[in-house]
């Protein structure tokens, strides 16, 4: 398995990385892949339950889709994402129980291209208050906030 991941490090044209339910993922490994893959557009870490912090010290300007569904991601990571991924269009935070309104607002304020954000099952985000904050902000483009 390590050999397969190492091969990714030498793929500068990599655009989609799908690691859903990949339990051995580490921040160091993610950082190495992103450092070598300047054209990355889609990252899927759904159900990577060991993923608590996503350290994105690099500018990932090409990233448009980020799936963090059912991870243990926190507001600190959302802040790092918000300062690294300015072109983000779709963000899935469904069932990320450590995410709060503060972290989501960092994303909404800094990722100005954002068109869709899934907050289904984010129990620390109060739906009514948060939606009102987004739509009252005149600087905010159309964002679809999903709750079910």
TrEMBL record:
Signal peptide: 1-16
Keywords: Signal
Domain of life from the UniProt record: Eukaryota
Keyword Isomerase: no
Cross-referenced InterPro entries: F-box_LRR-repeat, Leu-rich_rpt_Cys-con_subtyp, LRR_dom_sf
Keyword Signal: yes
Protein name as it appears in the record: Putative leucine-rich repeat domain, L domain-containing protein
Organism this protein belongs to: Medicago truncatula (Barrel medic)
